[in-house]
Amino acid sequence: MEKKQVLKRLYVGGLGHTVSEAELQERFSKFGNVTDTEIVIRKDDQGNPMKTFAYINIGISEADLKRCMSILNKTRWKGGTLQIELAKESFLHR
Question: Which helix (H) or strand (E) holds 93?
Fold first, then answer.
């Protein structure tokens, strides 16, 4: 049975502040075809990073998505504990 890949947008929270787009792409490309990564770093009033998260666009089958979530979610990586979920629909695209 052929796995049908669908483009999904994942939210990846709990990232360490030093993670690069290339590292994210490498980490998630084991599960599907990563087409885009976007890292967001929220800073406090002094400019210190408080929260780092990313959005990843990935062509992935449902089976591989479940595998990705079960393997990577809640794991420690690069100084953070990953929180992976399907991204909520952006208010810009409604």
Answer: none
Mean pLDDT (the chain) is 91
Predicted confidence (pLDDT) at residue 92 exceeds the cutoff of 80: no
Q: Is residue 93 part of a domain?
A: no
8-state DSSP, 92: G
The Cα 52–Cα 70 span in angstroms is 21
Task: Please answer whether residues 21 and 37 qualify as being in contact, where contact means their C-beta atoms are separated by less than 8 angstroms.
Answer: yes
12 in Cβ contact with 24 (< 8 Å): yes
33 close to 58: Cβ distance less than 8 angstroms: yes
pTM (two decimals): 0.88
Residue 73 domain boundaries: 5-86
